[in-house]
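Hey, I was hoping to borrow your eyes for a little while. I've been puzzling over a protein and I'd love to understand its fold better. The fold is given in discrete form, as structure tokens running alongside the sequence. I'd be grateful if you could look everything over and explain what you see. No rush at all, and the record is pasted right below.
>
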Amino acid sequence: MDIRSMTLEELKTAVVRMGEKPFRAKQIYEWLHVKLADTYGEMTNLSAALREKLAKTYELYPIKVLEVQTSRIDGTRKFLFGLSDRQVVESVWMQYHHGNSVCISSQVGCRMGCKFCASAIGGLVRNLTAAEMLGQVYAIQKLTGERVSNVVVMGTGEPFDNYENLLRFLHMLTDENGLHISQRNVTVSTCGIVPGIRSFAKEGLQVTLALSLHASDNEKRRELMPVAFQYELSEVMAACRYYFEKTGRRMTYEYSLVGGVNDSDEDAAKLGKLLKGQNCHVNLIPVNPVRERSYVQSDRTVVENFKNKLEKCGINVTIRREMGRDIDGACGQLRRRYEDDCR
């Protein structure tokens, strides 16, 4: 087990078994999750003997930076990280007026198969551990030299398809003994895994849940998202209402606008009817073109018209600011290109 995936309590148990005092666990945890050490050699207030015992017992896998792309338009940076088994994942660092936000991946690849997403091309390879998810945040904070204030689990992968590791990651990310990022500054995105939404609602977290909606009826949603064949839209929406009832956190609905597919006046009217009366926020996303797909962005006038129609239904709407457009900004693009180059 990677020691970075261990909670403070688990570390206390481990060091006591090694014949050490329990306070050593707090020192180790601080090195891993506050000082962001990548090697045992950096833990200079531990004895050489303890560091040697730790190295023999627990792995400490550093995440390696393979590539960094920086947008000349807005300064957005996209990172390609290498893992211990030579798999690669992407993360994105974005600067906003309210702080620095990092979008991380939760899996290597994805098996959800959404038609407009490069992450699903090639399917799922494996889940990420809590340490590998934390490692993305930590590496970016070290590389940029700036504190990360917001974390979005919205990169490659379906978080609820990696539920236990996701929970461990969230608890450790927001732990007061670590980076202590506020739970209210964390967003988890799902394509609509109904059992996962309902289970997540009971965890007692104050995390924002974002649903990748992308269509306002079953037929069109199935065209774009295979997961819709397993979970009817009515089931998904009921689970989202349940999440709000249990947590008091308003839902965010992600809606990627695909030119000529889901951006008509009729689509806007159906979506307005579907969400009317809910305490929610809609993020309209002009779809990021992927070279392996034929989907195109909606015209700007179409996007604005769609937004206006939703607002007339009393729905809170924003058009997501496009970031990193001049780099491999969309989920899965950088990893896909890197693997093609390697081949």
